Amino acid sequence: MATTDTRPFFLNLIKIRLPVTGFVSILHRISGLLMFLAIPFSVYLLDISLQGKQGFNRAAEIMSMPLLQLASLILLWSIIHHLIAGIRFLLTDFDIGLQKNQATQSAWAVFGIEAVLFVLLAVEIFL
């Protein structure tokens, strides 16, 4: 007796409806990757800025470029998201918030806290 395999052959990620907890998890991984990829440039800027007053002014000049300011905003988001979502994941490691409704509420709380902190810090840093 042959059975028909109804599983998809091509996984279309756009059509899959992830729960909010899945988005928090995926964005946590993306934010960690972004922070890791920013390390070499951050070390380069630190090296330049520690070479004296002229080096610091050069680093400030580099960071005043609009594209790098956008990259700084993205990096700021990734740091905030990684911190807040990481706290949520640490709590789940201690079996806190594992029920479906609690997990959903904590995932939405991550997005809410993240948005408030991002706006406050972005305004403080860039204005």
Beta-strand percentage range: under 5%
CATH class call: Mainly Alpha
In the predicted model, the low-confidence regions spanning at least 5 consecutive residues are none
Which term fits the overall shape?
elongated
**What do the pLDDT scores average to?**
93
User: Can you count the beta strands?
Assistant: 0
**What is the CATH superfamily?**
Fumarate reductase/succinate dehydrogenase, transmembrane subunit
Order of helices and strands: HHHH
Under CATH, the topology can be stated as 3 helical TM bundles of succinate and fumarate reductases
Helix content: over 70%
Rg, Cα atoms, Å? 20 Å
Strand-pairing-aware structural class: mainly alpha
* Main sheet properties: none
Overall tally of domains: 1
Q: How far do the termini sit from each other?
A: 70 Å
Instruction: Examine the secondary-structure arrangement and name the CATH architecture.
Output: Up-down Bundle
Tally of individual helices: 4
